[in-house]
Amino acid sequence: KLQHPTTVLLHSTNLILPVAYYCWKSNAKLIVVEHTSNSVKRKVEHQFSHWCKRLATKVILLSEDYKDEFVSHYKINNQSKIEVINNGIDVVHFAPTNHQKDTTKLIISMIGRFSEQKDQLTLIKAVQQLNHPMVQLKLAGTGDQLSICEGFVSTFKLENMVVFCGLLNEAEISSLLDETTIYVHASFGETMPTSLMQAMACQLPVIGSDIPGINNL
Predict the structure, then answer these.
(1) Burial category of 84 from C-beta neighbours within 10 Å (exposed 0-12, middle 13-18, buried 19 and up)
(2) Residues 31, 56: contact at Cβ < 8 Å?
(3) CB burial class (10 A; 0-12, 13-18, 19+) of residue 22?
(4) Which of 11, 94, 176, 209 is the most exposed place for a label (fewest CB within 10 A)?
(5) Nearest CA to 177 among 92, 111, 87?
């Protein structure tokens, strides 16, 4: 209210009602970006998306595949509100390097929020089963599921195998990918994961869950 924006860009659909009310009162445009795959949305999140398609000036989707899914699921006949804008990355910053990797370690990494949508815990259990001194899993990000993963690592004394890197900026992500041997993205639902694209731009070997949003990339 203090800034009087002419346009509000909303990335969190659970705020659609108060933000839409503000935009209506102030005559501002409301643009909503849908990030969450329909397959992992809770019932209330589907309701938020229904309100978004009704109340937003535009709804931005990240890929043509997700647009097809979104339009079909929410039975959208008039698609004039829908726009597809792909996630983009800096392919100069994220590119293959000639840097020699440490051959005494096999670094597996994943970058992503620790949320119910992601599946870092499966990666931790996989590394636990491997139980190989060369293998180390590095997990970047934060979120409400982080404490569960940290608790598992502590309970089974996996601190030498699993490293929690925290929330990284772009330069730190680049450094992590530079030392990574294999990038793995374990997830239950995606639309267009930026970190997967960054790893692919670095020409790393990539393994991902076989779900829409990953298998199409």
Answers:
(1) middle
(2) yes
(3) middle
(4) 11
(5) 111
- What whole-number distance in Å separates Cα of residue 36 and Cα of residue 210? 16
Q: What angle do CA 192, 193, 196 make, to 5 degrees?
A: 125
Dihedral angle computed from the Cα positions of residues 60, 65, 68 and 69, in that order, rounded to the nearest 10 degrees:
-90
CB atoms within 10 A of CB 126: 14
Whole-number Å distance between alpha carbons of 6 and 79 = 23
How do residues 165-198 score in pLDDT, each as one tens digit?
Answer: 999 999 999 999 999 999 999 999 999 999 999 9
**Residue 214 per-residue DSSP state:** T
In tens, the pLDDT along 117-172 reads: 999 999 999 999 999 999 999 999 999 999 999 999 999 999 999 999 999 999 99
- The CA-based dihedral angle spanning residues 44, 13, 187, 135, taken in that order and rounded to the nearest 10 degrees: -130
Using the CB atoms, write b or e for 94-111: b if 16+ within 10 Å: beeeeeeeeeeebbbbbb
